[in-house]
Write a structure and sequence with these properties.
Distance between the termini: 36 Å
Number of domains: 2
Helix content: 25-40%
Structural class: alpha+beta
Mean pLDDT: 87
Strand content: 15-25%
Number of helices: 10
Low-confidence stretches: none
Radius of gyration: 23 Å
Largest sheet: 5 strands, antiparallel
Shape: elongated
Order of helices and strands: HEEHEHHEHEHHHHEEEEEHEE
Length: about 300
């Protein structure tokens, strides 16, 4: 999965002493609130300007600073994983020349992959919580949630407090559909996949190979990533052999709800098998549907 939380951390915000301009985080929170309420992923600046100004006045925390709501609408697009706008910084002869009139009719939207991630499971609420805990002190959280109409995400926002602390203490930790994974629990990672032991192992050493990018299942991986997966599985097997010395393996990928998939983010199970772990292992994964295995056809 692309590191959306690192992109949030990297949002350029103006600072003066202890005061931080929260224009981009507030714009992102407003967009997430609208997506949560069913708004299409298309936002014209003049249609959300008044709401954004109101939020900036109450929660921008930059007193005596002129409110320029049109700046974040364009410049958030510099965080390429998160936001796209029809007018970009590169279109301007000078960033300081950006005028409200030039932005009024511009259109912005969340990047499609980011939107897909947000709409999976509890990810939208967790992202809201991460923004709140990252950019505002606790006293502002409830008023912000109320102002944005995000009360239906209170449990995810509370969970995100733990996630935020973990990520700040351990910047290499993984935060995704599998929860917060401390870096010490990550066996391997490269640009396409990472590996950890399963939280509910079928056998000692049961591992998961998980895509860095948010992809639903194996069929949703690019051809390049499908071609790279066997290398990661072989590399993981070498680490497993050194630690557990199994007698065999089952490799499994659940693709779709009918196939038993419950976490819709690609992962491949590497299940270690040991002599005697089941009375008769013959047929292996053919028995995923009870009673349907046919030994004569294995």
């Amino acid at each position: 999965m692309p590191d959306y939380y690192a992109a949030i951390d990297a949002m350029r915000t103006q600072k003066k002493g202890d005061s931080v301009a929260r224009h981009k985080p507030l714009l992102l929170l407003l967009i997430l609130a609208k997506i949560s309420s069913g708004h299409p992923n298309r936002f014209v600046f003049e249609q959300i300007e008044e709401e954004l100004i109101h939020l900036l006045e109450k929660f921008g925390e930059r007193p005596r600073t002129k409110i320029v709501a049109h700046y974040p609408f364009v410049f958030l697009a510099g965080e390429s994983l998160l936001w796209h706008c029809t007018l970009t910084r590169q279109d301007l002869p000078n960033p300081k020349s950006l005028s409200r009139s030039a932005v009024l009719h511009q259109v912005g939207h969340l990047q499609p992959e980011f939107l897909k991630y947000l709409l999976q499971g509890r990810n939208l609420g967790h992202t809201v919580g991460y923004l709140l805990h990252r950019f505002w002190s606790q006293e502002f959280h409830q008023p912000l949630v109320q102002a944005l109409g995000l009360g239906n995400h209170l449990s995810e926002i509370k969970e995100a407090e733990y996630y935020t602390r973990t990520l700040l203490d351990d910047p290499q930790a993984m935060f995704n559909a599998f929860g917060v994974i401390p870096s010490a629990k990550v066996w391997y990672r490269d640009e396409h996949f990472w590996v950890m032991e399963d939280g509910y192992p079928v056998s000692p050493g049961h591992c998961l190979v998980i895509s860095q990018e948010h992809r639903l299942d194996y069929w949703d991986l690019s051809v390049q990533k499908q071609a790279h997966l066997p290398y990661v599985i072989r590399t993981t097997r070498q680490m497993i052999d050194a630690r557990y010395q199994p007698d065999g393996y089952n490799l499994g990928m659940n693709c779709g709800q009918a196939a038993g998939q419950t976490i819709f983010h690609f992962h491949c199970h590497i299940i270690l098998r040991y002599n005697g772990d089941t009375p008769n292992p013959r047929g292996g994964i053919r028995h995923c549907i009870p009673g349907k295995g046919n030994y004569d056809q294995t």
